[in-house]
Amino acid sequence: QSLDYDVCDNTLFQDEQRKRLRDRFSLRTNVIRWIIFILIGIITALIACTINIIIEELSEIKYKFLKSSVDNNVPMTDREGGDLALPFLWWILLSIIPVAIGASMVTFIEPITAGSGIPQVKSYLNGVKVPRIVRVKTLAVKAIGVITSVVGGLAGGKEGPMIHAGAVVAAGISQGKSTTFVKDFRIFKAFRDDHEKRDFVLGGAAAGVSAAFGAPIGGMLFSLEEAASFWNQNLIWRTLIASIISSFTLNIVLSAYHGLKDFTFTGLFNLGKFDQPLSFEYFELPIFMLFGVAGGLLGAAWNSLNMRINQFRKRFVPWKVGKVCEAILVAILGVTMACTMIYFINDCRPLGNDPTIHPVQLFCEDNEYNAVAALWFQTPEATVRALFHDPPGSHKILTLTMFTLVYYILSCATFGLNVSLGVFIPTALVGAAWGRLIAMLLFYLFPETQFLHPGKYALIGAAANLGGVLRMTISLSVILMETTGIETSFFFPLIIALISAKWVGDYFNEGIYDTVIEVNNVPMLPWEPLPQYKGLTANEIMSKPVICIKRVDKAHYIYEVLRKCEHNGFPVVDNVEGVSTITAYKPERNFNSYTALQDRRSEGRVCGIILRSQLIVVLLKSLYVENKQFWLPETTIQTFRDVYPRYPSIKSVRPLDRKIHYTVDLSLFMNPSPIRVNAHDCVPKIFNIFRALGLRHMLVINNENRIAGIITRRDFIYK
């Protein structure tokens, strides 16, 4: 199903607009709209702070315990005991318990929370009705799921799910009620429709990005580049304000929590500031471009492999218990590969050079630590930060080579599990690892060079890998600049790497979010019509025959239409020859017996369109012509908004046994100005109209204004 982004400009709505002009309501509504965007930023940031603090505390306990277990069980020649199998088993146990909890909650309570949530939010903003995407239960499961997944050590991050969390917060606050808790606060009633809700959800997504990365401008640009399908100038300002408020609130709370007095803790994905300004030589630009090419190739391969893995999961792991077991199996695989690297690779470094949080000595000498364990005994965000800022010589070439290969495979196997995790952090981590690795190899080949700063190349590698997987350019470069605090002069190398990665990756496949949407068969409208639709006309793609309803029609006929078909929009016709209101339907006939009468209805002249949800409300509230004097004075557009967004189904309407001959006049409720196109109009033209206006239904008429067919978003994709 689609969302109704086109405003229903019926008589009730027009009456409300005229009343607002008299009451100066528009000014008050605009002020309230700004207040809602500010609240979205504050609450999204507080949720992000809560998630971050819990993850930090639990991860600290976990890795401190594992370090102690390793130190106490290292086999020593001068004493008995010591079995490294014990910390290995503890690590597996401390990984599978939280992963099992998170995967079970996602699988059995709210499956929509699986993954980062960005593809779902993107589909919602495109106009696709994604069930249960912005509910309170979804937010709760998402928050707990991302905490358990990150603490469990899966190859993912908490940044992506924050965008989904911000969208849920925005959808909840803007409606002034909770359908989950059946509580109506009787505020913000003017915003209870899909069109208004869409704008708030976009602001929530931007606030989520801002909280995740401490990048308010990057959050606004992310919403514009990656999430939004509809945009306007006023929305830019409101989205930016929500992003700024979110970043500022998170900065204050986390800075206070960490004891910082200068409010410098920016974002959950805090990569730290470089000690010295990053500079580059112009002869390095081809190297950065080659980094982008490598990132595009690796990203395209990652997307293709991940898509095949997810298709395999969809086909061979359909059971819920199997999905939970799969997540546990991947967690065990990750721990096993990490322990294998730590045990067999001898990479000892002196203490003091690398600011490792939990240095593990293992088989190293005194005052040394195991550099391989340092990569694994912390959260993925901390590992990215270490690869950016560790001094030269902190790792062996073999260490980073194996770490890159292992994490590349792990991240590919993890994204698509039934857990709440984002893809941003593992992608950045893999890119930072191979970027730093290439810098080390170049320095090994050319030891006299002065420009090979390993942190600089780790940043370029992370950007290239992110560009190859996500296919973002402008917003991603701004996010990385705001997150690391690098100078604007370094924007040029970043954008070169990102654009090169995007161009190379686009040659092979689409970005990971679009790939997920495609695998799930979501009817997402692209920016331009598909090539096979060019040269076609509306007559070749429209759906027909169309079920029509007369402007004044029998209530029982409307009831039977709603009961027998699942359509969500019906053209309203008038001037139907040979079908009167009185003889249009006889109750002793079954629904199929008046197909001929329905065909005659389709010969009427189009005078509007009515939605299924509106017809059900009309029947539920008995808004009939025969008792018009009782309901007309009290019926407003708010009558329909009060049941939004969970409109009742036709099953909630009692059979109209005593109201067989009652009639319904749709003049008050229908949209009298639906978008109509001629049957001979070209598809690219009508596609642009359909997408630009965010339509759900488009009527196709002939030269006499009689219905010829109807077009929905599926007609632009599956025909």
Automatic annotation (TrEMBL):
Leader peptide range in chain numbering: none
Q: Where is the CBS domain?
A: 670-719
Write down the superkingdom of origin: Eukaryota
Instruction: Alphabetically list the UniProt keywords.
Output: CBS domain, Chloride, Ion transport, Membrane, Repeat, Transmembrane, Transmembrane helix, Transport
Membrane topology type, per the record?
Multi-pass membrane protein
| Subcellular location, record wording | Membrane
Q: What's a single GO MF annotation on this record?
A: chloride channel activity
Q: Show the InterPro entries listed in the entry.
A: CBS_dom, CBS_dom_sf, Cl-channel/antiporter, Cl-channel_core, ClC
Q: Which SMART domains match?
A: CBS (SM00116)
Q: Where would you find the membrane-spanning parts of this chain?
A: 31-55, 88-109, 139-157, 200-223, 235-260, 280-303, 324-345, 397-417, 424-446, 458-481
For this protein, the record's Pfam families field holds:
CBS (PF00571), Voltage_CLC (PF00654)
Q: What is its main location?
A: membrane
One cellular-component annotation, GO = lysosomal membrane
Q: Which family does it belong to?
A: Belongs to the chloride channel (TC 2.A.49) family.
Q: What is this protein called?
A: Chloride channel protein
Q: From what organism does this protein derive?
A: Drosophila rubida
